[in-house]
Amino acid sequence: MKLSRFQAMTAFSLVLAGVGLPASGQPMQTGQTITSFSLTGFNQFKTDMNEGGSFNWYEANARLGLNRQFTPNWGVGLFAEYGYQHWSWSDPVAFGGESPWTGISTPQLGFSVSYSPTAAWRFSISPSIEWAAETGVGTANASTYGAVFLGTHTISPNLTLGLGAGVFRQINENRVFPFLAVNWRINDQWTLSNPLPAGPAGGAGLELSYKIDNQWTVGAGGAYRSYRFRLNDNGPYAGGIGQNRVIPVFARVSYQLMPGTRIDLYGVASTGGNVQAQSADGSQTWNSDYKTGLGLGLNLSHRF
Protein backbone atom coordinates (compact mmCIF):
# COMPACT_ATOMS: atom_id res chain seq x y z
CA MET A 1 0.00 0.00 0.00
CA LYS A 2 -3.63 2.37 1.33
CA LEU A 3 -1.30 0.56 -1.09
CA SER A 4 -3.55 -0.55 2.06
CA ARG A 5 -1.87 1.31 -1.08
CA PHE A 6 0.48 0.07 -0.98
CA GLN A 7 -2.46 -1.25 1.08
CA ALA A 8 -2.78 -4.83 0.23
CA MET A 9 0.17 -3.85 -1.81
CA THR A 10 3.12 -1.91 -0.67
CA ALA A 11 0.17 0.16 0.49
CA PHE A 12 1.46 3.13 -1.24
CA SER A 13 -1.40 5.59 -1.66
CA LEU A 14 0.41 8.84 -2.25
CA VAL A 15 -2.01 11.57 -1.18
CA LEU A 16 -3.51 12.55 2.15
CA ALA A 17 -7.31 12.57 1.92
CA GLY A 18 -9.55 12.19 4.92
CA VAL A 19 -6.84 10.91 7.27
CA GLY A 20 -4.33 12.93 9.24
CA LEU A 21 -3.51 16.51 8.38
CA PRO A 22 -5.48 18.23 5.61
CA ALA A 23 -4.07 17.52 2.17
CA SER A 24 -2.71 21.03 1.83
CA GLY A 25 -1.30 21.07 5.35
CA GLN A 26 -3.47 24.14 6.02
CA PRO A 27 -6.71 24.26 8.06
CA MET A 28 -9.93 24.31 6.08
CA GLN A 29 -12.30 27.27 6.30
CA THR A 30 -15.81 26.97 7.73
CA GLY A 31 -18.20 25.86 4.98
CA GLN A 32 -15.34 24.77 2.71
CA THR A 33 -15.62 21.49 0.81
CA ILE A 34 -12.63 19.83 -0.84
CA THR A 35 -13.01 16.96 -3.29
CA SER A 36 -9.90 15.05 -4.26
CA PHE A 37 -8.97 12.07 -6.37
CA SER A 38 -5.76 10.29 -7.22
CA LEU A 39 -4.63 7.63 -9.67
CA THR A 40 -1.45 5.73 -8.83
CA GLY A 41 0.56 3.16 -10.78
CA PHE A 42 3.61 1.32 -9.51
CA ASN A 43 5.98 -1.35 -10.79
CA GLN A 44 8.33 -3.34 -8.57
CA PHE A 45 11.08 -4.74 -10.75
CA LYS A 46 12.57 -8.21 -10.37
CA THR A 47 13.50 -8.73 -6.72
CA ASP A 48 15.54 -11.68 -5.44
CA MET A 49 14.55 -13.64 -2.34
CA ASN A 50 17.13 -14.75 0.21
CA GLU A 51 15.88 -18.35 0.11
CA GLY A 52 16.11 -18.48 -3.70
CA GLY A 53 13.95 -17.38 -6.60
CA SER A 54 12.51 -13.95 -7.35
CA PHE A 55 9.32 -12.00 -7.91
CA ASN A 56 8.05 -8.76 -9.38
CA TRP A 57 4.73 -6.98 -9.17
CA TYR A 58 2.76 -4.11 -10.65
CA GLU A 59 -0.20 -2.31 -9.16
CA ALA A 60 -2.83 0.35 -9.76
CA ASN A 61 -4.82 2.36 -7.24
CA ALA A 62 -7.67 4.88 -7.44
CA ARG A 63 -8.94 6.99 -4.55
CA LEU A 64 -11.78 9.52 -4.22
CA GLY A 65 -12.13 11.74 -1.13
CA LEU A 66 -14.54 14.39 0.10
CA ASN A 67 -13.86 16.70 3.06
CA ARG A 68 -16.26 19.25 4.54
CA GLN A 69 -15.62 21.75 7.34
CA PHE A 70 -19.09 22.29 8.80
CA THR A 71 -18.19 24.62 11.67
CA PRO A 72 -14.95 26.08 13.08
CA ASN A 73 -14.86 23.04 15.38
CA TRP A 74 -16.20 20.11 13.34
CA GLY A 75 -15.18 18.58 10.03
CA VAL A 76 -16.08 15.34 8.24
CA GLY A 77 -14.37 13.39 5.48
CA LEU A 78 -15.36 10.42 3.31
CA PHE A 79 -13.25 8.30 0.97
CA ALA A 80 -13.49 5.29 -1.31
CA GLU A 81 -10.52 3.47 -2.76
CA TYR A 82 -9.75 0.50 -4.95
CA GLY A 83 -6.37 -1.13 -5.52
CA TYR A 84 -5.16 -4.08 -7.54
CA GLN A 85 -1.75 -5.74 -7.47
CA HIS A 86 -0.40 -8.53 -9.71
CA TRP A 87 2.59 -10.65 -8.68
CA SER A 88 4.78 -12.84 -10.89
CA TRP A 89 7.11 -15.42 -9.34
CA SER A 90 10.17 -17.32 -10.58
CA ASP A 91 11.14 -20.52 -8.71
CA PRO A 92 10.26 -19.32 -5.16
CA VAL A 93 12.21 -21.95 -3.20
CA ALA A 94 10.74 -21.02 0.19
CA PHE A 95 7.27 -21.77 -1.19
CA GLY A 96 8.14 -25.11 -2.76
CA GLY A 97 8.65 -23.59 -6.19
CA GLU A 98 4.96 -22.64 -6.48
CA SER A 99 3.54 -19.14 -6.74
CA PRO A 100 1.91 -18.44 -3.35
CA TRP A 101 -0.40 -15.77 -4.84
CA THR A 102 -0.96 -13.74 -8.00
CA GLY A 103 -3.64 -11.01 -8.14
CA ILE A 104 -4.70 -9.06 -5.01
CA SER A 105 -7.71 -6.73 -4.83
CA THR A 106 -8.26 -4.14 -2.08
CA PRO A 107 -11.51 -2.17 -2.08
CA GLN A 108 -11.76 0.17 0.90
CA LEU A 109 -14.30 2.59 2.43
CA GLY A 110 -13.80 5.02 5.28
CA PHE A 111 -14.69 8.32 6.87
CA SER A 112 -13.16 10.75 9.34
CA VAL A 113 -14.49 13.10 12.00
CA SER A 114 -12.31 15.93 13.29
CA TYR A 115 -12.83 18.23 16.26
CA SER A 116 -10.91 21.42 17.00
CA PRO A 117 -11.61 22.71 20.52
CA THR A 118 -9.29 25.65 19.85
CA ALA A 119 -7.57 27.13 16.82
CA ALA A 120 -4.37 25.28 17.79
CA TRP A 121 -5.66 21.81 18.69
CA ARG A 122 -7.23 19.24 16.38
CA PHE A 123 -8.36 15.69 17.14
CA SER A 124 -9.65 13.17 14.63
CA ILE A 125 -10.82 9.60 14.32
CA SER A 126 -10.86 7.87 10.94
CA PRO A 127 -12.55 4.45 10.84
CA SER A 128 -12.24 2.34 7.70
CA ILE A 129 -12.87 -1.14 6.37
CA GLU A 130 -10.92 -2.86 3.65
CA TRP A 131 -11.34 -6.22 1.94
CA ALA A 132 -7.88 -7.53 1.04
CA ALA A 133 -7.93 -10.79 -0.88
CA GLU A 134 -6.56 -12.74 -3.80
CA THR A 135 -8.71 -12.78 -6.92
CA GLY A 136 -11.64 -15.15 -6.52
CA VAL A 137 -12.04 -14.88 -2.74
CA GLY A 138 -14.72 -12.19 -2.38
CA THR A 139 -15.21 -10.42 0.94
CA ALA A 140 -15.73 -13.38 3.30
CA ASN A 141 -12.98 -13.64 5.93
CA ALA A 142 -10.94 -10.99 4.10
CA SER A 143 -11.76 -7.82 6.02
CA THR A 144 -9.39 -5.44 7.74
CA TYR A 145 -11.13 -2.89 9.93
CA GLY A 146 -10.26 -0.36 12.59
CA ALA A 147 -9.44 3.32 12.89
CA VAL A 148 -6.68 5.91 12.90
CA PHE A 149 -6.61 8.20 15.97
CA LEU A 150 -4.76 11.50 15.73
CA GLY A 151 -4.17 14.60 17.80
CA THR A 152 -2.24 17.61 16.46
CA HIS A 153 -1.16 20.99 17.83
CA THR A 154 -0.35 24.01 15.67
CA ILE A 155 2.66 25.56 17.33
CA SER A 156 3.11 28.30 14.75
CA PRO A 157 1.80 29.10 11.25
CA ASN A 158 4.70 27.03 9.90
CA LEU A 159 4.71 24.11 12.35
CA THR A 160 2.10 21.51 13.28
CA LEU A 161 3.03 18.42 15.30
CA GLY A 162 0.98 15.49 16.53
CA LEU A 163 0.82 11.89 17.63
CA GLY A 164 -1.38 9.21 16.18
CA ALA A 165 -1.97 5.49 16.03
CA GLY A 166 -3.67 3.10 13.66
CA VAL A 167 -5.50 0.30 15.49
CA PHE A 168 -6.74 -2.45 13.18
CA ARG A 169 -7.97 -6.02 13.07
CA GLN A 170 -6.02 -7.22 10.03
CA ILE A 171 -7.37 -10.62 8.93
CA ASN A 172 -7.27 -12.53 12.23
CA GLU A 173 -4.46 -10.43 13.70
CA ASN A 174 -4.48 -7.24 15.75
CA ARG A 175 -2.13 -4.49 14.58
CA VAL A 176 -1.19 -1.15 16.17
CA PHE A 177 0.87 1.41 14.22
CA PRO A 178 1.95 4.53 16.16
CA PHE A 179 3.20 7.45 14.11
CA LEU A 180 4.36 11.03 14.35
CA ALA A 181 2.32 13.64 12.45
CA VAL A 182 4.48 16.48 11.12
CA ASN A 183 3.86 19.48 8.93
CA TRP A 184 6.88 21.76 9.29
CA ARG A 185 7.51 24.48 6.75
CA ILE A 186 11.15 25.07 7.60
CA ASN A 187 11.40 27.99 5.17
CA ASP A 188 10.01 28.96 1.77
CA GLN A 189 11.75 25.98 0.12
CA TRP A 190 12.09 23.18 2.70
CA THR A 191 9.22 21.19 4.28
CA LEU A 192 9.18 18.13 6.54
CA SER A 193 5.85 16.28 6.45
CA ASN A 194 4.01 12.96 6.21
CA PRO A 195 3.92 11.65 2.63
CA LEU A 196 1.51 8.73 3.17
CA PRO A 197 -1.88 8.25 4.82
CA ALA A 198 -1.79 6.28 8.04
CA GLY A 199 -3.93 3.15 7.86
CA PRO A 200 -4.00 -0.64 8.14
CA ALA A 201 -0.61 -1.02 6.45
CA GLY A 202 1.30 1.33 8.72
CA GLY A 203 2.06 4.86 9.84
CA ALA A 204 2.39 7.99 7.77
CA GLY A 205 6.17 8.02 7.27
CA LEU A 206 8.32 11.13 6.88
CA GLU A 207 9.48 13.10 3.84
CA LEU A 208 11.80 16.08 3.45
CA SER A 209 10.90 18.09 0.34
CA TYR A 210 12.41 21.07 -1.47
CA LYS A 211 10.34 23.49 -3.55
CA ILE A 212 12.41 24.52 -6.56
CA ASP A 213 9.80 26.96 -7.89
CA ASN A 214 6.01 27.24 -8.16
CA GLN A 215 5.84 24.12 -10.35
CA TRP A 216 8.69 21.80 -9.39
CA THR A 217 9.30 20.04 -6.06
CA VAL A 218 11.69 17.24 -5.11
CA GLY A 219 11.69 15.14 -1.97
CA ALA A 220 12.89 11.99 -0.25
CA GLY A 221 11.53 9.89 2.59
CA GLY A 222 10.43 6.51 3.85
CA ALA A 223 7.89 4.55 5.87
CA TYR A 224 7.09 1.11 7.25
CA ARG A 225 4.39 -0.97 5.53
CA SER A 226 2.89 -4.32 6.51
CA TYR A 227 -0.26 -5.86 5.05
CA ARG A 228 -2.12 -9.17 5.00
CA PHE A 229 -4.61 -10.64 2.53
CA ARG A 230 -6.74 -13.76 2.20
CA LEU A 231 -5.59 -16.38 -0.33
CA ASN A 232 -8.01 -18.18 -2.62
CA ASP A 233 -8.88 -21.87 -2.59
CA ASN A 234 -7.14 -22.68 -5.87
CA GLY A 235 -3.53 -22.02 -4.87
CA PRO A 236 -1.04 -24.07 -2.86
CA TYR A 237 -2.14 -22.40 0.42
CA ALA A 238 -5.90 -22.71 -0.03
CA GLY A 239 -7.82 -20.31 2.17
CA GLY A 240 -4.64 -19.20 3.94
CA ILE A 241 -3.17 -15.75 4.51
CA GLY A 242 -0.47 -13.92 2.57
CA GLN A 243 1.64 -11.14 4.00
CA ASN A 244 4.19 -8.60 2.81
CA ARG A 245 6.33 -6.43 5.10
CA VAL A 246 8.58 -3.77 3.63
CA ILE A 247 10.28 -0.44 4.33
CA PRO A 248 9.91 1.67 1.15
CA VAL A 249 12.55 4.41 0.84
CA PHE A 250 11.78 6.80 -1.98
CA ALA A 251 12.78 9.88 -3.93
CA ARG A 252 10.11 12.09 -5.54
CA VAL A 253 9.94 14.62 -8.35
CA SER A 254 6.64 16.52 -8.59
CA TYR A 255 5.25 18.91 -11.18
CA GLN A 256 2.27 21.21 -10.59
CA LEU A 257 0.32 20.97 -13.84
CA MET A 258 -2.25 23.59 -12.77
CA PRO A 259 -3.76 24.80 -9.48
CA GLY A 260 -4.90 21.70 -7.59
CA THR A 261 -3.42 19.22 -10.09
CA ARG A 262 -0.08 17.52 -9.53
CA ILE A 263 1.88 14.67 -11.03
CA ASP A 264 4.50 12.80 -8.96
CA LEU A 265 7.23 10.46 -10.16
CA TYR A 266 8.65 8.15 -7.49
CA GLY A 267 11.76 6.03 -7.43
CA VAL A 268 11.45 3.44 -4.65
CA ALA A 269 13.89 1.10 -2.93
CA SER A 270 11.96 -1.63 -1.09
CA THR A 271 14.21 -2.53 1.84
CA GLY A 272 13.94 -4.94 4.75
CA GLY A 273 11.23 -6.95 2.99
CA ASN A 274 9.65 -10.27 3.90
CA VAL A 275 6.92 -12.31 2.16
CA GLN A 276 4.95 -14.96 4.01
CA ALA A 277 2.18 -17.48 3.44
CA GLN A 278 0.25 -19.13 6.25
CA SER A 279 -1.98 -22.18 6.11
CA ALA A 280 -5.72 -21.73 6.65
CA ASP A 281 -5.58 -23.17 10.18
CA GLY A 282 -2.46 -21.19 11.08
CA SER A 283 -0.42 -24.30 11.84
CA GLN A 284 2.21 -23.80 9.12
CA THR A 285 4.07 -20.77 7.82
CA TRP A 286 6.35 -20.37 4.81
CA ASN A 287 8.37 -17.17 4.39
CA SER A 288 11.46 -15.59 2.95
CA ASP A 289 13.21 -12.26 3.40
CA TYR A 290 13.97 -10.52 0.14
CA LYS A 291 16.78 -8.33 -1.04
CA THR A 292 16.38 -4.63 -1.73
CA GLY A 293 14.26 -4.21 -4.85
CA LEU A 294 13.76 -1.15 -7.03
CA GLY A 295 10.51 0.25 -8.34
CA LEU A 296 8.95 3.21 -10.13
CA GLY A 297 5.66 4.88 -9.28
CA LEU A 298 3.54 7.56 -10.97
CA ASN A 299 0.77 9.45 -9.21
CA LEU A 300 -1.75 11.94 -10.58
CA SER A 301 -3.81 13.86 -8.03
CA HIS A 302 -6.37 16.64 -8.23
CA ARG A 303 -8.16 18.75 -5.60
CA PHE A 304 -11.13 21.01 -6.27
UniProtKB/TrEMBL annotation:
Keywords: Signal. Residues 152-232 form the DUF6268 domain. This is DUF6268 domain-containing protein. It comes from Orrella daihaiensis. It holds the Pfam family DUF6268. Residues 1-17 form the signal peptide.
